[in-house]
Amino acid sequence: MSLAPAQPLRRLPQPAAALALIKPITWFPPMWAYLCGVVSSGVAPSGQWALVVLGLVLAGPLVCGMSQAANDWCDRHVDAINEPLRPIPSGRIPGRWGLWIALAMSVLSLLVGWQLGPWGFGATLLAVAAAWAYSAEPVRLKRSGWWGPGLCGLAYETLPWITGAAVVSGGAPAAPVLAVAVLYGLGAHGIMTLNDFKAVEGDRALGLASLPVTMGADRAARVACVVMTVPQLAVIALLFWWGKPVHALAIAALLAGQGAAMRVLLRDPRGNTPWYQGVGILLYISGMMVAAFALRGL
Question: How far apart are CA 276 and CA 263, in angstroms?
Answer without folding.
Answer: 10
